Amino acid sequence: MAHIDEHPAGSALVAVIGLGTMGAGIAEVFARSGYRVRGIENDAAALERGRSLLQKSTARAVARGKLEAEGQQQLLGRIDLGTDLSAVADCSLVVEAVSERLDLKTALFAELDRLAPPEALLATNTSSLSITAIAAATARPERVIGVHFFNPAPVQTLVEVIRTVSTSDDTVERTYAILRTIQKTPIGCGDRAGFVVNALLIAYLNRAVRLYQDGFASREEIDQSMVDLAGYPMGPLALLDLIGLDVAHAVLVRMYDETRDRLHAPAPLLTQLVTAGRLGRKSGRGFYGYSGTDVTDEPGPVKPPPASRAAELPDTLVMGYLNDACAMVQSNYATPDDIDTGMVQGCRMPAPFDVLAQYGPATVLAGQRQLFAETAEPGHRPALLLERLAAADDPQAALAALRTRS
């Protein structure tokens, strides 16, 4: 059987299991690039929902001039839909996109191990679960890998490629080659909660919630400082409302379960809002109130502080974010280039190592040391890499050399 990276639009087959929003989008992405796709669901009703998602998504592309009507029919014609898992028997790549339940995924991968060809790549699109645990359900963990697409998959170019301690170099190389044939930008990392983008983004958002709940500054001061002074596209509290407070809370729970870093424990206010059903835009109330997609002037859940420290923003939030990025590189979890690419493409945020260069390692280290001294919080301890960069004879040259090596 030909490898998919050898014949990207030819005889190789891709199976996508689970045709919800993400799975249907992934199937569309492969079919758009000329691959033959087998979309698999567990029952007829779910299959019809998947078919409807594919039809609506491609119809929107036609309406926007991104796809010709004839091209839409050709694309849909390359996707065969069914409920029989044995259809993976001649597929070179299997992408799993079922619900985020570890028991469900491990049971599925045990079946894929039995049904898929020995040389097939088995990929999971999980956004939060342990890929190592999923791979352990198979007799071929070296061929199991994470491919975390971002929503909506047909539009977002970024894909996080997550290898476990068992994943082979060949599997990583083939996965990168495949993703490039479908015009995606892969970045690599190890198997830790949150991967690159969510680990940095959600930790930063959680810190913003803590500042707000503790009376450091008002919600408007926090959000406006990150937009006006830091150049972020949206303030952290408004972004949490857009993402969904329950979604961020679930990621933080997973991160805290793994790291036991108290900074990864959901801020009490975040937990209270989720418990109260204030989930953000989708529920009409979060940190702000909403009427449709419009922000109302509803008072926030915390009263404005009597003595605001807003003048210390955005540095207070940015320093911790940059320290986290340095810690990732220090542990060989991800490269500066992959981290920068992930945050720019995945979040439209400034590249962390560009920001580190703008501030200068010595300035960031001084700010992080002050934060650590004020809080005595172990998670605020400056990363060793940040200390080494700041101690170099020429910190900017040392930082440039680090980024070149990546």
Structure write-up:
Residues 14-191 form the 3-hydroxyacyl-CoA dehydrogenase NAD binding domain. GO terms for molecular function: 3-hydroxybutyryl-CoA dehydrogenase activity. This is 3-hydroxybutyryl-CoA dehydrogenase. InterPro entries: 3-OHacyl-CoA_DH_NAD-bd (IPR006176), 3HC_DH_C (IPR006108), 6-PGluconate_DH-like_C_sf (IPR008927), 6PGD_dom2 (IPR013328), NAD(P)-bd_dom_sf (IPR036291). The protein is built from 17 helices and 10 strands. By secondary structure, the chain is α/β, with parallel strands linked by helices. Helix content is 50%, strand content 10%. Helix 1 (21-32) crosses helix 2 (44-63), helix 7 crosses helix 9 and helix 7 packs antiparallel against helix 12. The protein is globular, with a radius of gyration of 22 Å. The model has no long low-confidence stretch (mean pLDDT 94). It has an 8-stranded mixed beta sheet, with helices on both faces. The chain has a two-stranded antiparallel sheet with strand order 9-10. It folds into 3 domains: 13-189, Rossmann fold; 197-310, N-(1-d-carboxylethyl)-l-norvaline Dehydrogenase, domain 2, CATH 1.10.1040.10; 315-405, N-(1-d-carboxylethyl)-l-norvaline Dehydrogenase, domain 2.
